Write the structure tokens for this entry.
Amino acid sequence: MREKGLEAFVDSINNGVCRLLIGVQSTPVDMPLHLLPVGTSEGSRLLIKFTELPKENNSNKRKIDELLKGFHEEFVTKVKENKESSVED
């Protein structure tokens, strides 16, 4: 079974930076060598695959937004209470 992805050719490696030529158009991309598989060297052929992240990332953002909204509402309420109590004094 053949995996789908983009083929990359390692064109050069200098000072820990790897120059990849990506896809049939050989689009150049610089990538830190430490992010590539161990043993990668000039002339290596690599397969770049993409994986969609779970939708949980969006639900986590919503939870954070709800918490921030709650904190903001609580802050506004306390500011109003402080103003009202200072007027009464």
Notes: Residues 52-89 form one domain. The mean pLDDT is 85. Helices lie at 56-88.
